[in-house]
C-alpha cells in the first residue's frame, strides 16, 4: 500500500499560516541540556518566587481525590468569591483558563476578518495573536518613554476598530496607565468599541495615584477588565484568570467558551488563595524589597532600567550587547528583549533572596569581565 502524502499547507487557514509561535523563553531543563548548567535560577517568567498560598496548597491536597469528576463549568463558587472581594455582581465575572483564554474568547466572539484592534508596541503578545487568528488587523502604536501613547492610540481609532487593548502595568516595561490617561481613553472611544484593560500585575502596583479601573466599570459598558491568579497569587501552573465585564458581554463570551475550561484543582486553589490576604501582603513586601535591592545594584553598575509597578524590571543592555547570553552562562535565566519587541533590553523577574543573590553574583562577574 502506497503511503499517502498529507500537505497541511493546503488546508491551513490563511490567518494562521503566518502566525508566530509564542515562545515562553528558556527553561532550566533546556539550559541544562544546552549549556550543562544544572543549578541555574529562572528569573524570566514573572512567577511569584514565594509560590502559592499555603491555604491553596491544602485546598488542592484535599481536592485530589475528586479529580475524577468534571469541574463546575460555571465556576460558580469562584465567581461568588470574586464578587464578594471586589464588590461587583457575580454575573459580571467570566472565569477563564488564564487571561489568555479570555482574550481568545473576545476574539472569537467579536472580531471578524478585517476588523481592527489597537495595541501599544510592544505589549503583551497574546492580544495580537488572538486578533490575528480571527483575521483581524492589529494597529500597533509605538510607546513613548516606555509608556503606552494614549493620544496616539486614540488617533488610530476608525470605523473598523472593535477592540483597544491597554496593559497596566505594562508587560514588558512595568509602566502603568495613569488615572487621567484611562479617563482620556474611555472618554475618547466611540460607542461600540471595547476597551480591554489588562491588570494582570495590578496587585504588585504601589503607586497610590494609579486608577481603580473598577470605579469606571459601571459607567462604561464596553470596558472589560482582565486579571489573573498566575502572578501575585502564585498559581501560574494552574491557569486561572478572569474577566470583569457586563453581563451581556459575558453571555457572548460564554457562547464560545469550552464547557469545563477551568479545572477542579484550579478552582479550589483560587478560592483558597483569594482568602489568604497575608500571603498577598508578604508577596508584595518581598517584591518591594527585591526591587529596591536590584535597583541599587543596577545603579551601582551603571545599567539603566525602567522603574516598575510590577514584579519585573526592564533593563537596558548598555555596553553589554549580549547581556542575556552573559547572564545565561552565569546560570541566570532572564527574558531577552528582542522576542518581547524591545531589543537591546532584558526583562528580569524580581526574585527571592536566593535568586537575587545569584543575579547579583552574575552581574558583578559580568561587570568584572568588562
Mean pLDDT, all residues: 95
- C-alpha Rg, in Å? 21 Å
CATH second-level architecture of the largest domain:
3-Layer(aba) Sandwich
Biggest beta sheet summary: 7 strands, mixed
From N to C, what is the helix and strand string? Answer: HHEHHEHEHEHEHEHEEHHHEEHEEEH
The fold-level CATH name of the largest domain is Aspartate Aminotransferase, domain 2
Uncertain stretches of 5 or more adjacent residues: none
Assembly state here? single chain
Tell me the domain tally: 2
Percent strand: 15-25%
Structure description:
The structure is a single chain. With 370 residues, the chain is of the alpha/beta class. The protein has two domains: 23-51 and 278-369, Aspartate Aminotransferase, domain 1 (Alpha-Beta Complex), CATH 3.90.1150; 54-275, Type I PLP-dependent aspartate aminotransferase-like (Major domain) (Aspartate Aminotransferase, domain 2, 3-Layer(aba) Sandwich). It is 38% helix and 15% strand. The protein has a seven-stranded mixed sheet, sandwiched between helices. Strands 9-10-13-12 form a four-stranded antiparallel sheet, covered by helices on one side. Helix 3 (54-63) packs antiparallel against helix 11. It is globular. The model has no long low-confidence stretch (mean pLDDT 95).
Amino acid at each position: 500500500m502506497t503511503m499517502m502524502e498529507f500537505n497541511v499547507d493546503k488546508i491551513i487557514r490563511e490567518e494562521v499560516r503566518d502566525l508566530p509561535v509564542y515562545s515562553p523563553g528558556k527553561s532550566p531543563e533546556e539550559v541544562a541540556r544546552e549549556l550543562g548548567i544544572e543549578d541555574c535560577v529562572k528569573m524570566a517568567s514573572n512567577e511569584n518566587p514565594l509560590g502559592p498560598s499555603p491555604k491553596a496548597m491544602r485546598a488542592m491536597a484535599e481536592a485530589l481525590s475528586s479529580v475524577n469528576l468534571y469541574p463546575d463549568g460555571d465556576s460558580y463558587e469562584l465567581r461568588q468569591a470574586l464578587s464578594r472581594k471586589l464588590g461587583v455582581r457575580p454575573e459580571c465575572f467570566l472565569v477563564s483558563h488564564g487571561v489568555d483564554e479570555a482574550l481568545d474568547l473576545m476574539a472569537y466572539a467579536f472580531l471578524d476578518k478585517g476588523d481592527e484592534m489597537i495595541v501599544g508596541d510592544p505589549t503583551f503578545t497574546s492580544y495580537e495573536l488572538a486578533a490575528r487568528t480571527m483575521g483581524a488587523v492589529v494597529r500597533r502604536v509605538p510607546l513613548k518613554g516606555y509608556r503606552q501613547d494614549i493620544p496616539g492610540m486614540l488617533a488610530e481609532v476608525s470605523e473598523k476598530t472593535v477592540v483597544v487593548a491597554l496593559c497596566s502595568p505594562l508587560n514588558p516595561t512595568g509602566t502603568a496607565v495613569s488615572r487621567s490617561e484611562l479617563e482620556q481613553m474611555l472618554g475618547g472611544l466611540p460607542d461600540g468599541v471595547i476597551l480591554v484593560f489588562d491588570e494582570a500585575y495590578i496587585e504588585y502596583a504601589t503607586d497610590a495615584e494609579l486608577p481603580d479601573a473598577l470605579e469606571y466599570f459601571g459607567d462604561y459598558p464596553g470596558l472589560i477588565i482582565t486579571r489573573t491568579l498566575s502572578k501575585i497569587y502564585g498559581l501560574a501552573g494552574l491557569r486561572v484568570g478572569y474577566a470583569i465585564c457586563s453581563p451581556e458581554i459575558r453571555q457572548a463570551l460564554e457562547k464560545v467558551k469550552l464547557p469545563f475550561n477551568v479545572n477542579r484543582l484550579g478552582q479550589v486553589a483560587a478560592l483558597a488563595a483569594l482568602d489568604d490576604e497575608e500571603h498577598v501582603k508578604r508577596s508584595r513586601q518581598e517584591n518591594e524589597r527585591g526591587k529596591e535591592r536590584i535597583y541599587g545594584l543596577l545603579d551601582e553598575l551603571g545599567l539603566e532600567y525602567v522603574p516598575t509597578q510590577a514584579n519585573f524590571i526592564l533593563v537596558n543592555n548598555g555596553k553589554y550587547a549580549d547581556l542575556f547570553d552573559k547572564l545565561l552562562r552565569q546560570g541566570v535565566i532572564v527574558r531577552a528583549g528582542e522576542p518581547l519587541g524591545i531589543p537591546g533590553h532584558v526583562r528580569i523577574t524580581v526574585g527571592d533572596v536566593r535568586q537575587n543573590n545569584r543575579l547579583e553574583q552574575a552581574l558583578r562577574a559580568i561587570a568584572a569581565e568588562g
